[in-house]
Amino acid sequence: MSEPPPAAQIRPEELRSYRWFGPDDLRSFGHRSRVKQMGYDKEDYEGKPVIAILNTWSDLSVCHSHFRQRAEEVKRGVWQAGGFPVEVPVMMLSETFMKPTSMMFRNLAAMEVEEMLRCHPVDGAVLMAGCDKTTPALLMGAITMNLPAIVMPAGPMIHGSWRGQTLASGTDAWRYWAERCAGNLCDAHWQEIESGIARSPGTCMTMGTASTMTSAAEALGMSLSGAAAIPAVHSAHSRMATQTGRRIVEMVWRGQKPKDIISAAALNNAITAVMALGGSTNAFVHLIAIARRAGLALDLERFDEISQRTPVLANIRPAGEFVMEDFYDAGGLRGLLSRVTDLLDLDSPTVTGQTLGENLAGAEVYNDDVIRTRQNPLSPTGGTFVLRGNLAPDGCVIKYAAADERLHQHSGPAVVFRDYNDLKARLNDDQLPITADSVLVLQNAGPLGGPGMPEWGMLPIPQRLLEQGVRDMVRISDARMSGTSYGTCVLHISPEASTGGPLALVHDGDLIELDVAARRLHLHVDGDELDRRRADWQPPEKKFQRGYGQLFEREITQAHEGCDFRFLAETAETSEPEIH
Question: Structural domain tally of the chain?
Fold first, then answer.
């Protein structure tokens, strides 16, 4: 049997996988013989940590198209460190192709991760994640199972290009689509943009949800220091994959588990990173779900408190002007965090075996235009604020750093769409009474209403207003917004319309007041009238009669609760399987 390294805290016979392979009985005979069936000798695995490489590769997970190669590079690191790697495919969550939204399936993927780790003879896991919902899904499942685990981020794609201009996925798609709808962009140019905007493997090269969540994972302490920003096609990314494989073996021997790393202080670090990055509003929902899986309380107020003290230093689209490739070259997340160390808990442990402060030692910034100084921030406070009011008693969010400043304080009449199909059918109706001062309201697009709380929150601007030069309006919904999106979009209204929340009671012409500085969203309709409307309100019909959809409708929580399933958010330990 192999000997553990000198600093190990557990012995080979204490490995979880030993329960499958170690005993001298008929069941273990079957396990060992099947490993030999794959061509391995006992020297390959006996007394070694078995490492599950959870690979979210798929032909439809385009951001992870390099994961076949990266899995082999992770295996190389596991072998080098004296472990036994096993690649385990898990559910991919394709932001591009899954309808109505990949968010509907985040909890399903988290369930699969938990159960795949529970039922197999593994001692630790590498979480190959990147595309928006994969990082929180894999983290949620791994935290609940609580075996040693480490995130290997997919990395952003390289920048796009069109006629000498840098293109950024998502952000420039919305921008140029608006210009096309306004009649300022021809079909040929639009097709050129389509061919030039996504030119390599990797996630969106903006500070969208993908890079926001891999950065949050790094700040949480769950990935190697400096890993999140490495572009997917760089050779450094391959080396990082191998280093990740080596590190997880050491974590198993030391018994270092997710709940040893993820604490209230670590969550504060992650939120601080998100705010300094001007990151995606989706991080609110995901970090709350991650916290609850770790048995920790996290509410919207904590996000707002941290936002008020954290400047936006990352000058990255959609809030800024650069892309992730520039951010990496400028010093990446380590460089950015080195400029806000006074706002971080530097003693928080990480998967590297060092504290966050030790990981940041020697970090530098090489371009002050891309990663701003504290004296010259993109914004003096975090890019996202939490709002409350009679329209959102349980809160909502706005990415004000990506909104038109003139609309930060605004009152206007509501133009209400009862759902997304209604929006598509009527938005460009010439008879629709709408002006640049109107407030667009989308109902029934939340966790239940969407279903899955799709990224519909950046409501399109009517074509006739685009032709007049209007490029932003106040838009309100119980939906989410892509991290690559921009505009004065109030999101995550909670409780949602489909549960009878106040959003369901808004009528055309109602005056809605937005005051970002005061953190206020108010519907100017008196209480008696709202009571009358509430008495007349009828809940929408259920969308699913069977299967996962029915489970989703029964168990999903609201945005301010993380949109996890009620029965999964409980903190009870996952039971170990009996081996007969």
Answer: 4
pLDDT tens digit sequence for 147-168:
999 999 999 999 999 999 999 9
Using N-to-C axis directions, what is the helix angle for 300-309 and 264-277, rounded to 10°?
50
- Tokens 């998967």 label which residue? 351
Sequential DSSP letters for 63-102:
GGTTHHHHHHHHHHHHHHTT-EEEEEE-----TTT-SS-G
pLDDT at 232 over 90: yes
Same domain, 31 and 72: no
**Average pLDDT rounded to a whole number, residues 502-528:** 97
CA distance 236 to 179: 38
* Cα–Cα distance for residue pair 261/256, rounded to 1 Å: 8
Pull the structure tokens for residue 90: 């898990």
Give the CA distances from residue 305 to residues 91, 268, 272, 286, in Å, rounded to whole numbers and listed in that order: 35, 10, 10, 18
255 torsion bin: left (phi>0), alpha (psi -120 to 50), beta (else): left
CA dist 125 and 123 (Å) reads: 7
Residues 303-327 have pLDDT tens digits of 999 999 999 999 999 999 999 999 9
- My answer on whether 29 and 79 are in the same domain is no
pTM of the model: 0.96
Residues 140 and 169 grouped into a single domain: no
464 and 496 in a common domain: yes
Do both 305 and 208 map to the same domain?
A: yes
User: Is residue 6 located within the same domain as residue 59?
Assistant: no
Residue span of the structural domain in which 417 resides: 385-536
Q: Are residues 456 and 489 in the same domain?
A: yes
Average pLDDT (537-543) is 92
- Helix or strand (DSSP H, E) at 291: helix 282-293
Co-location of 353 and 494 in the same domain: no
